[in-house]
Amino acid sequence: MFKMIIDTQTGEVTNVELTPEEIAERETTTEG
Amino acid sequence: MAISTFPAPTTGADNWVQISSVTPTAGAATVSFTSISGYKKLLLRVNAPQLGSTGTITLTFNSDGGANYDYASIGTNSSPIAVSYINVGATGIAMGTGSTTGPKLNLTIDEVLTSNKKTLSGFLQQMTTSGTANVLTDIKGSYFASAAITTVTLTASTTFSANGTVALYGVAA
Fold first, then answer.
1. Where residue B4 falls among pLDDT bands split at 50, 70, 90?
2. Between A2, A7, A26, which is nearest B27 by CB?
3. What is the pTM of this model?
4. Looking at the partner chain, which of B19, B25, B29 has a beta carbon nearest the beta carbon of A26?
5. Which residues of B touch A19 (CB under 8 A)?
């Protein structure tokens, strides 16, 4: 699972893996 | 009767430019426009980004998940029955619940660069929800923050599939 990040200054699109902390936060704040 | 005349466009009128437009990558949990700078107004156009499995999509600014979003929407569903939603102190702007069908949103964001609360105005077709299909609403709201908006994020509770588009437009300051 990753974050899609679009840099609006450069137009660069990168996909960054979620950290364990971010995954844990998603599990407590979102429905699924 | 005199011939009607229309006022000429005024100097300094809003000139919207496209900042970015993407189709979410399959498997992405979030789609974020970052490093936004130099725009006094923003327009977010969300055109049916679908999810790989049933879930929700939520809009936030500046990666702020605090209770800083107030918004109300009123409209109709396909029955048709009038519907209205009021959310005070929300942690983001929800675009419907429990579906894979992507929402459609045209949302104008003002006060982007000022220290005032950010004002939100637009149209939302919610994600299709069982029993309340095709919920079409006007949406108005505020994002309570003094900092300029530099990041706009859509968060899926599941993950996106490679469908639809998410585009950001702006008016230069």
1. low
2. A2
3. 0.89
4. B29
5. none
